[in-house]
Design a protein that fits this description.
Structural class: alpha/beta
Number of helices: 15
Shape: flat
Number of strands: 27
Strand content: 15-25%
Distance between the termini: 44 Å
Helix content: 10-25%
Amino acid sequence: MEVDEIVDVQPLLLTDAWKMFKEKVGHPISHPLIEPIARHVVEECHGLPLLIDRVARTFRKKDKNVSRWEDGLKRLQRWDSVKIEGMDEVLERLEICYEDLKDDYLIECWRAEGFINHANNFKQARDRGHTVLNELIKVSLLERSNKSKCVKMNKVFRKMALKILSQSANSKILVKPHEELEDFPRKEEWELANRISLMDNGVSTLPKSVDCHDLLTLLLQRNKYLTSIPELFFMSMCHLQVLDLHGTRISALPFSLSNLISLKALYLNSCPDLIEITASVEALKHLEVLDIRKTKINLLKFGSLIWLKCLRISVCNLETGYHIETQVSRFDTLEELSIDVDSSKEGWDEIVKMVVKEVVMLKKLTSLRFCFPEVDHLDLFVKHSPLWEKDSCLTFQFSVGCHDSAFAQILESVDNPTHNILKLVNGQGVDPVIIKVLMETNAFGLIGHKGVSSLSAFGIEKMNKMFNCLIDRCHEIKTIVDGHKTSEAVLKWLENLYIKDVPKLESIWEGPVCAGSLAQLASITLCKCLELKKILSHGMIQQLLQLKHLRVEECYQIEEIIMESENAQLVPEALPKLKTLILLDLPKLTIIWANDSLEWPSLQGIEISMCGMLKILPFNQVNATNLQSIKGQQSWWGDLVWEDDATKQILQSLCILD
């Protein structure tokens, strides 16, 4: 089935949920004794469309039998033996109940436990895993968290999944996250468990030994009072595949760690006191994923694990003495490597220079996250690494220059985790290697750069894979695209453009615009561009058929959003996809568009604040028919000038004023 647009399904409002449930159940719901029960049933569904659909199918069979409806409601409220058709089979595939887990972390756990089959390498496993994640999100079994690139399970489905798994003969789980536990659970709770999750509690001590021969996953992360692990704690866990201790205060790993002969993923990151390993790690023959970022442990202590596939370290994990030359390259089967850098640490750049020579020797990498102190070091990698060849499958996140290990969130893409990212910080001019890397870059951050007046200087004609672009604190840039220097369509696949604190910026596009340029641009954000006067020129606005979101903030010279002098022939169908328009602190803004000739067919919400000179809105009684809200200040609304009272009355009903 073809669709015009893919829309993320959010939880429904109670009124909409009731309407959906009513349509699914049909006539019985109008019965005066059943309707109040039915409304409670809908409340238990928490607005989840998939759950509403399944519950409605079940309750439809109860017809007008009030006692059966009441019994069904009670069962639903306690999730006790309730059978909702089609749900058991789906939820049985969710072996862990998720709460604010990183996408990639979750996929690594799936791979470690064998849930992702027929994947020859981590790249294939991640591709397959993200496909599954997106499907689970589409049907509301999982949902995006407020935390960056995290997912969680809705609490309703979480209850249901726990109930189903508790009745499974093949799986016994202990899941108690965020429950303020201070002590490890009782023996009868954890014995025979396949999976234990006690993350985000206050557990400070662990039992001296536990009998957990069947345990596959143990999640103890972020128990910040946990300072030690008894020497015999892991002795019986010979089948353990995933161990997460990150965010604890442990200082050493016990010798029983060597009993984890089936372990595939070990997470020790953000354990700032961790410095010792008393175990022999050579026994960890199946370990594929190791994360020791932000610990004091030396990578050399894991040096025998040359079969690792995924390694995440910080520069502080590297020995600064004689042995630095072979610390990284010995892991010659690595597929994924991430090295965090703290540029505030003295001597970090010298260490990283040495590591670049090591990374060049790794021939099986499919993913590299790395900071190059200078452009010359990036050039060394590009020239000498066999990975940087045509049709290479390498996915990269590169930062060049001063680095804080935190890639700008605007550059990350939840839906496209394999995007190549280049972040250029505090640079100067244009180096040929940057142009070369930009040809393969999907998200580009230009931050604090000097010596260029436009993005065109970086060979914009070759940026054919660019989806996201961030320009921040570049005080010499005057325009983003110089149309006088190109004779072909550029930035054809750019989706998001974010420009902040570029004080000399005068326009986004200067000069002629070739057809096809900016054809996929969906979002424009402009903030603190103090000299910006021109946003949507005629040639540019003709290309913006996909623009959905426009935000302009603290641009003090802006007088018009759509310039009347350059858009005399503007057709009513312009900006057909624009959904949201946000205008904040624009003291000179007088018009959005000169009249009410535009149709605004997709516009749903506008927000206007501190735009005191804006007295006219470009709307009438028949355009902007999908407009749902107008946010603004009461004083501003009161000063608006209207062509007729009918338009004012229509729009006033949509206002949210403060």
